[in-house]
């Protein structure tokens, strides 16, 4: 093991650049999946005729497919249909779709957990269905959804490493490249990657616990 060589500034900068790509992909995917999941989950909860059934089929289909397959499909199949994206955006779209389906189920479950009596009381007081959903149900459901959502976002961050298969220059891809230069660099590079992943994910876990405690 050559820690001094592996952590020389050019190599360290190379690994940190990969980590920056990881954070960029994760950050964009978290935003897009949250928006997509919230919309899909709300549509499923409202049980709009036909539309809710279509959304349910789409969500259940995506949730039961491997993430790697979705990334492959977007990166390899869509260009053949005339839809071309960079490796970066192929990864973001794949993660957003997959995690969005997961978030949709969390949102639907969170909304369903609100007692029916509150909905009936709000409607009887003159509030419309959308006012009841936005002002009564959703704020309470968000409190209950926050912990599982943060856990899902932590999984998303770790899942960015799957993009190594389509050569996205993220952290694990750069670890592999550095390890290919010298076998003595493999363990130091993997240890640094482990520390970086741990710091970010542990920080998110602490924030989730504090958020849950405050909401409680």
Automatic annotation (TrEMBL):
NCBIfam families: HEQRo_perm_3TM (TIGR01726)
Membrane topology designation: Multi-pass membrane protein
Family in the record: Belongs to the binding-protein-dependent transport system permease family.
Any GO molecular function: transmembrane transporter activity
Protein name, per record: Glutamine ABC transporter permease
Keyword Secreted on entry: no
Any Gene Ontology biological process: amino acid transport
One Gene Ontology term, aspect cellular component: ATP-binding cassette (ABC) transporter complex
InterPro entries on file: AA_ABC_transptr_permease_3TM, ArtM/GltK/GlnP/TcyL/YhdX-like, MetI-like, MetI-like_sf
Subcellular location: Cell membrane
Residue intervals passing through the bilayer: 20-43, 64-81, 185-208
Domain ABC transmembrane type-1: 19-208
UniProt KW Transmembrane keyword: yes
Alphabetized UniProt keyword annotations: Amino-acid transport, Cell membrane, Membrane, Transmembrane, Transmembrane helix, Transport
Protein's organism: Paenibacillus xylanivorans
